[in-house]
Amino acid sequence: MPKRKDLNSILLIGSGPIVIGQACEFDYAGSQSLRSLREDGIETILINSNPATIMTDPSMADHVYLKPLTTKSILEILKAHPQIDAVLPTMGGQTALNLCIEADKKGIWEDFGVELIGVDIDAINITEDREQFRELMLKIGVGMAPQATATSFLKGKEIAQEFGFPLVIRASYTLGGAGASIVYKPEDFDEQLSYGLEISPIHEVMIDKALMGWKEYELELLRDKNDNVVIICAIENMDPMGIHTGDSITVAPAMTLSDRTYQKMRDMAIHMMRSIGDFEGGCNVQFAVSPDEEEEIIAIEINPRVSRSSALASKATGYPIAKVATKLAIGYTLDELDNQITKSTSALFEPTLDYVIVKIPRWNFDKFEGSDRTLGLQMKSVGEVMGIGRSFQEALHKATQSLEIKRNGLGADGKGYRNYEQIISKLTIPSWDRVFVIYDAIQMGIPLSRIHEITKIDMWFLKQYEELYFLEKEISKYTIATLSKDLLLEAKQKGFADRQIAHMVDCYESEVYNKRTELNINRVYKLVDTCAAEFKAMTPYYYSTFEEEIEKPDGTRYVENDSIVTDKKKIVVLGSGPNRIGQGIEFDYCCVHGVLAAAECGYETIMINCNPETVSTDFDTADKLYFEPVFWEHIYDIIRHEKPEGVIVQLGGQTALKLAEKLSKYGIKIIGTSFEALDLAEDRGNFSDLLKENNIPFPQFGVAETADEALALSDELDFPLLVRPSYVLGGQGMKIVINKEELEEHVVDLLRKIPNNKLLLDHYLDGAIEAEADAICDGEDVYIIGIMEHIEPCGIHSGDSNATLPPFNLGEFVMQQIKDHTKKIALALNTVGLINIQFAVKDDIVYIIEANPRASRTVPFIAKAYKEPYVNYATKVMLGEKKVKDFNFNPQLEGFAIKQPVFSFNKFPNVNKNLGPEMKSTGESILFIDSLKDDEFYNLYARRKMYLSK
């Protein structure tokens, strides 16, 4: 049965701004879903308030509504589009599901004759209402942990008395584990119970007997209307129960399950999916398994929607879950759909993996001073990375190298812990760096049995770590000259970076690189093909590994490489790595548009990125995708293999920019603005000289490398001072200080955290208005794409400010200065492509705060507000295909657009919520207003100084 004929127009609900617990993975799901619907000629209407994503790009849907996710907005859209036949709410995370339920309760879908597809309301209610879910599981014979529901404080106390501690409290209808906690001691129970009851929209909590130390698994399922069910991927959490899956290190395929238990788990998952409701689409099921011979299975929860893990499972297997789930929702069956990768097998074919993937979350605790860094049932990570390798060890190493936290992998970089008490404490209380601490513990000689006893991490994983340590110990006995080919190849196959091997044998990274090139130990590229190479894959999606040489009968030796290099002209786009505060999904938006623009110019496009949540790592965004760490060694090998015309670095945020120096040093062409210009903008001293030459004012500043120098400078500059390290992202380490004591304390702290860094001290322009401009420059002409005025005063990071486009109260004289300065600076820096400049306006004088000759956080916002594809234009300028004057710019915006930051402070209740020069927001939404008399603008303006912290 092909698709339904009665579905011609579908409303898709997005997930809104990025918050901890609901990030880019839903942008990826929604984007795939929209493309999937349009392939079938269905009219698509999207509601989503997030301007930073690909999903809300005008090219993605027939009608894009950048509106708040409320039933009021839904009503407006349904009135404007009476032709809407159905709503698909399963692609926008918990936000979309909650909005869908609210609209259902108010009778909105019924009033407008709109059908719900991809899920049914009963299924949502059963899975969200923990009491109903428990009763259903018991009825169908699926085991659950002893649990009970409390809708009052008193009832909760009674349950605790009956079960004993430790206990788990989970709030109904919440996101990312909000309101969930493990309670070990009776004295902590009252506070956590109150919080859970308060945060649940229906004031209900489920209290479970804690299954601490049990193993945790997730299965991703798809089901069609003929009741065919496929299991796309089984994911094992390396961390045992007690840590939210979004904060766990996860591995696919499952590593430590017996086949008997895995088959039993599959049957249970299918039985559960069929029992919760009659719907076609995707589903995620979580289980706990006892860590003994019995391997008893207990169900934790089921989500009848595309989940955080579906993005990971899609990238891990190459099977696009959201795309297929959408096809099932509109009536196709699995056997009618093609496998997207092989194009010759059907979607009813379950993927098989001949490689291992490891996902590691990325946290940003440094942004939340005083936050509780313990990992538990409430998700705290802001992004994630995925490593693909031929073994668990290689994948684990590649994932740790992708994190961008100044580590080169596990061990062998001199940055491990050496204090016994500290190591034991970090193993006992799960923290963000436990993945590294396990290695330190083994290095210190702590027995595996003790590590297992403390962490409850399966012995198989710990033995894998131990093997890595034994190999490091063995290699350390040699010098680079005496290191054998076999040992070097083994280290590379287990994922050790050249830098790590250099650390072991005490030489330069380049010497290790030269040695392995000499010995023909080179990276080869393998396909992610969904079928363990049983069928030919048509999609170029690669990961790297190292293999033994194969000898042919004629004696020639070779290594098999799946990545065939074409003779087309190629462009590499460097991705932005894991999502984090200060560098979010807006750079993924820029990378995707860069790839599409380069393709329009006739280039073969090559994407390098390691973030499984994003559209840039979709298998059909670029002509070739290398799912690899954005880490020098990996990038250099790909470039040597592919020999591109050049590399685009200015679209991938600071991650890609940081590699510009290395690329330049190795003679690799940087497309667009040169490394020298990028570096000049980062080097405050040289940049200020450039401003002086052009008669452009800037706040008085000085550079200090010690606390003494900083104190001496403060006499010349006058307080308040803005102190910041150079070459940082998202205002990291920035602070406004008002006296010498504060200055000394902050400088000492910064130099301890970031040794050998230059510190910049600027005189802080108290009470100034902050503004910023984005522009495209081709070296001759400059076109300003947008000027924004911040509602908050200067001193609050631009990423945390409400930015208004166009400005609302800058006079003509000030606007002219902004335009003149922007053009002068863009040309003086020889910018080719995008540039963002930030200004402080005081007493009608416009001062320059900084200039970034790259794509900025605000470019997608301006593109959405003005309905213009600015990244496409800028990429064509970078490639030299077009000049600024070749474009017919036609921005369209009536009234004002405001970029509103969104925070995730609810994950860190004890943190100071004051805003300052260091960025803390996790996402943003866009608000359109007709005039400044709008109440929402008035409220924002009235509160503008509330959060400023010195």
Task: Write up what this structure looks like.
35% of the residues lie in helices and 20% in strands. The strands form seven sheets. It has a seven-stranded antiparallel beta sheet, sandwiched between helices. α1 (25-39) links the parallel β1 and β2 (43-47). The protein is globular. The mean pLDDT is 91.
Quick take:
With 950 residues, the chain is an alpha+beta fold. It is built from 31 helices and 35 strands.
Oligomer: single chain
Q: In order across it, which strands form the biggest sheet?
A: 14-13-10-11-12-15-16
Shape: globular
What is the mean predicted local confidence, pLDDT? 91
Radius of gyration: 28 Å
The number of helices is: 31
Structural class: alpha+beta
Please give a handful of descriptors for the protein shown.
31 helices; seven-stranded antiparallel β-sheet; alpha+beta; 950 residues; 35 strands; globular
